[in-house]
Amino acid sequence: GLSLLGAGPALATLGILTFLASWNNFLWPLVVASTERTYTLPVALAIWSLSALDHRRTGLPPAPLRPLLVIHLAPASLLAITASLLGLPKLASVLLGLAALYGLILLVAVRWLTASGPSPLWGGFTFPLGALAAAMLVVGGGWQWPGLGLTAVALVVIPALMWWVLQRWPGGRLAAMTNAAEA
């Protein structure tokens, strides 16, 4: 019979083509909320502030949850894309500079972030990595070459993580790693 493992490349291709075909419909709701009080920048600032306060109160997360800290890279990247598309190049550069700085901090801390070993939570690296690469390409200028390099890294890392997850999904190995209940 046809195995899920053999269907992986076909499913990945279908997912990528579907995403590319509906990019604008997908990205816009993520970037801009519907009312003035819920625009992306205030929401991002609130999330970052609450997260910082929580880390101050409870301490840093345990090793298995550390990969999830990378998601904080995505809002600054998406805000840089938005500012660039709205014709605000200075704001886009500032936001992208902040995102790139945070990305460099995460790169320096990669051993600390991955201290618990391979985990399905490493999937938390994928969206922020792609968002930062996209922001660099959209803002352009001096960011274009680093953006191309980061895109090349993302084109290796993201499918590798997806493949790793797909290999462990059948037979419940992924569920066992995450302490999830088996169906």
Would you report the number of β strands?
0
Strand content: under 5%
Gap between N and C termini: 22 Å
Mean pLDDT: 80
Quick one: biggest sheet? Answer: none
What string, H for helix and E for strand, traces the elements in order?
A: HHHHHHHHH
**Assembly state of the chains shown:** single chain
Overall form = globular
> What's the tally of helices?
9
Low-pLDDT ranges? none
Helix content range of the residues, please? 55-70%
Tell me the structural class: mainly alpha
Radius of gyration: 18 Å
Which secondary structure elements does this structure contain, and how are they paired or packed?
Layout: H1 4-21, H2 23-31, H3 40-58, H4 73-85, H5 89-108, H6 110-113, H7 126-139, H8 144-168, H9 173-178
Helix pairs in contact: 1-8, 4-5, 4-7, 5-7, 7-8
Question: Which structural traits does this protein have?
Answer:
9 helices; about 180 residues
Quick gist of this model?
With 183 residues, the chain is an all-alpha fold. The chain has helices spanning 4-21, 23-31, 40-58, 73-85, 89-108, 110-113, 126-139, 144-168, 173-178.
Structure overview:
The chain has 183 residues and is mainly α. It has a domain at 54-178. Helix content is 70%, strand content 0%. The protein has nine helices and no strands. The longest helix is centred in the C-terminal third of the chain and has 25 residues, at 144-168. The protein is globular and about 50 Å long. The two termini are 22 Å apart. The model has no long low-confidence stretch (mean pLDDT 80).
